[in-house]
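User: For my dataset I need records formatted as: sequence, then structure tokens, nothing else. Please produce one.
Assistant:
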Amino acid sequence: MNIPKLAEDQGVHDPLYCIRGDGWQVVGEQTLVVPGGHARRLTLARSDRRTEVVFWFTDGRERYDSAWRTWRQSLSRRLTFGRSGREPALVLLQPANGETPSWNSVFAQCPFLFEI
């Protein structure tokens, strides 16, 4: 599993742009309940390969899968010179070996993911 790295100098964007730009096709989608909100699980296919990714955005208080909400929060933060709250972060998890993990087990073993 890839551990997310936060990049302070890059704007948060919808991960579907990069996923599709890398040649993956979304063939399945599901909402997952996670501590403090919800995440999105995507099943992806490219050529004869399949994988899954799970992602969510967070403002430090809530977790959600809406890129629009992230953009609104980011704009509000810029307009208020940071007084409206923290900059949203994207947390994206993808198995390194292509095998689909039990996401609930991953979440249980890695509670620090929800402290971002």
